Amino acid sequence: QVQLAESGGGLVQPGGSLRLSCAASGEIFSISAMGWYRQAPGKKRELVASIRWSGGITDYADSVKDRFTISKDNAKNTVYLQMNNLKPEDTAAYYCALATYGGPYSRTGPYGYWGQGTQVTVSS
Q1: 3-state SS assignment for residue 89
Q2: DSSP structural state of residue 88
Q3: Measured by CB atoms within 10 angstroms of the end CB, which terminus of the chain is less buried, N or C?
Q4: What is the C-alpha to C-alpha distance for residues 103 and 88, in angstroms, rounded to an integer?
Q5: Is 75 helix (H, G, I), strand (E, B) or coil?
Q6: How far apart are CA 81 and CA 67, in angstroms?
């Protein structure tokens, strides 16, 4: 079984920083990409950032560009999300997602494996 273990969430003041980590474990042979989604109460899930495993190409939501940075450690099957200058609107549950060649796939995209989520709350 493939498992994603997320950590690093917490309560921070506006302007603060957090670094999220997600380590994938299990029988993983062909990672294509990893990413971070977030979902706030009453809101739809949105992709925050993603990174392709082989080439390292990244993608960011417009709302987090220039504030968040996604990175990876291939040897550890781990993805990170460095979040700087956090804003109250960043408050959400953040979910790590894993895409592998050949699936499985979700209804809307290639991410077939999901973590349980880590809460990020930005409040003064």
Answers
A1: helix
A2: G
A3: N
A4: 35
A5: helix
A6: 10
pLDDT at site 79: 98
In the chain (124 residues long), the average pLDDT of successive 10-residue segments reads 96 98 92 97 96 96 98 96 98 97 83 96 96
Residue whose tokens read 């930005």: 122
pLDDT at 49: 98
In this predicted structure, what is the pLDDT of residue 8?
97
Angstrom distance (rounded) from CA 83 to CA 40: 17
Distance between CA atoms of residues 21 and 23, nearest Å: 7
Which amino acid is it at 93? Answer: A
pLDDT given for residue 57 in this prediction: 97
Give residue 107's pLDDT.
80
Nearest to 116 by CA among 99, 98, 93: 93
Q: Reduced to 3 DSSP states, what percent helix, strand and coil does the chain have, rounded to the nearest 5? A: 5, 50, 45
Place of tokens 């895409």: 99
DSSP letter at 102 equals: T
